[in-house]
Structures are given as C-alpha cells and as structure tokens.
Amino acid sequence: MNQHITLGEFIIDRQAHFSYSSGELSSLLNSIRLAAKVVNHEVNKAGLVDIIGDAEVENVQGEQQQKLDVFANKVFIQALVNREIVCGIASEEEDEFINIVGKDKSNNNKYIVLMDPLDGSSNIDVNVSVGTIFSIYRRVSPLGKPVTIEDFLQPGTQQIAAGYVIYGTSTMLVYTTGHGVNGFTLNPALGVFYLSHPDIHFPEIGKIYSVNEGNYQNFPKGIKKYIKFCQEEKDNRPYTSRYIGSLVSDFHRNMLKGGVYLYPNTTKYPNGKLRLLYECNPIALIAEQAGGRASNGKERIMEITPTELHQRVPFYVGNNCMVKTIEKMIRKYD
Ligand code: AHG
Ligand code: MN
Ligand code: MN
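# manganese (II) ion complex -> structure
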C-alpha cells in the first residue's frame, strides 16, 4: 500500500495528463476532496444528532429528500462555487441547472459538474453506506455567456473526469480522469486521503450479482432469464447475491470483487430508476476505465445522447463478460 501518497499530491502529480487547463482541473478535484471531508464528518455523526430524517420536501423526481441530501448538496455546490473554475452545476437535488458567475460577474469559467450529492439516501437512518457521485465536462457554450442546457446534455464519452466518494466502514474517494482508476482512503485522524487502491481493475471473473429482486415479476424477460442463469448450478455458478441499495456501495464492491449491478426497467420505473447524468455516466466511465462495461441493455451508456437533465435509463454495469451476457439475453428474449 502506497501509504505515503496523498490525494492532494496525486492530483498534482497526474496534472500532466491534461493538455489544457490542468491546474484548473486539479483545483476542481481538490474542491471535491474538501467537500467530501465535510460531508463525511456529517454522515459519521448522523446517528448522534438530529440530522437524520426527512426534510419534509420532495425533490424533482417526487422522492422524499433526507436532511443529509440537502446538506451534501449545499456543501458540494459551495465548495465548487468558491473557486473560479466551474461555470455550471446540475444536481439530482436541484430542479434546474445552476449558472455560476465569477467574482467579477463574468461567465468565463470552463467546467461543468453534474452530481448525485448523496446516493443511497434511504440507507442513512439505518447506518448503511452512502456515497456521492460526480461527473465533470468542459462547457460547449461560448465563454463569456451563461451556460446553456447543451452544456449539461453531453454524452458520457465527453466526460473529462468522474468519481465517487463512499462513506462506508472507511471513507474512500475513487476517481478517474480517463487514465485508469485510483482509490484513496481517508485517515480520519489526520483528515487526509491516502492512495490505498492504485490502478483498480475488475477481477477477471465476476461471481456477484446485485439487483433488487423484489421487483422480479416486473423485470423484462431477458433479465428474468439472466437471474435464473446466475442461480443455476453450472460452471462457476450459482453466483452470490449482494444488494445494499446504494449504487455507489454496490458498484464499489463489485468492482473490487468482481460482479454485476442491475437496475432494469420495471412497471414502476418504465425507463429504469437511475439517472443517466448523475449516476450512470460517471459510474460507466469508472467501470470502463477499470476494464468493465456499462450498458442500458442495448447500447453503451456513455454513447447515449441525453435529452433531459433528470433522464432515467436501465443500467447494467460490472464485469465485461457479465454485462455482455445480459445484453445477449435482452437481445434474445425482449
Ligand atoms: P438516491 O439515494 O440518490 O435517490 O439513489 C438511490 C438509488 C441507488 O443508489 C440504489 O442502487 C437504488 O436507488 C436502489 O433502489 P431500490 O430501493 O429501488 O432498489
Ligand atoms: Mn443516487
Ligand atoms: Mn441522491
């Protein structure tokens, strides 16, 4: 374990990977690092103080927000706004995207951030891991003007960085800038992230499947077949079933141990439940950078052209061959 490399050092060290504005992206990543520590501190004491529970408001998707969602949303936005780098933010917890002007009121910042500030929020009040997911793009609208919806509706292939924070038994920050995936673990005593998981790759063979099987009756036929395939006693099966109900945690485990995560379309969620821009694209970039695959069952997640900010898609992500098998079964049966 490279105990002596801190996240701050690593970000600077890898700056050379960017042909343009490398210092700015480093600074942006550093603001995420800072916000992650603040949210971590709050998540860790969630059981102690009167911060858990519903905030008595619903977000744009009609789901009840928890107070920590609101808190994490504010902390990340504040951290990102403070540096003169980000021109626009879209968040799962905000109805509309936010335009950010510099201190001189100009619109000259270059980066767009999309985020799910608190993923797995229904797990908060039962002390189960939650996370934050983020995705970074260059703006496509001209400098000097407010950002437009086109800046946010870019396909995932245009991401220049993506990552997540997992507030688990340890707190980790995992990210990629398109040159592999690296994971950092927070030493809570020092408040410092150390490189603990350099160059993460999915293991060759995956043996875990993660899906909310309670929805089985409403799954497409190909997915029902795939679940039966996972349970069959043949070759290296049955696979192990593991489902936390927090995408970040389920994905993180599957990437380290080998497995696949499924959130298909169902009767309740005809387009799937997960959001393309805040959850699927960033996780897809990390998965591919770690040798995995991410699909909506028919096409590569990152090649989907988004049409709206809060768009949902069916999501299958994990070991390359497991996702390929899912795609094959969807083609065959649906
Ligand atoms: P969020 O807390 O940001 O709304 O995301 C919850 C998502 C995802 O993290 C998780 O995997 C999935 O919803 C769980 O959904 P079910 O409870 O329907 O299984
Ligand atoms: Mn989420
Ligand atoms: Mn969320």
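# post-check
The first helix runs from residue 7 to 13.
Helices lie at 7-13, 22-44, 67-82, 149-152, 221-231, 247-257, 276-289, 320-333.
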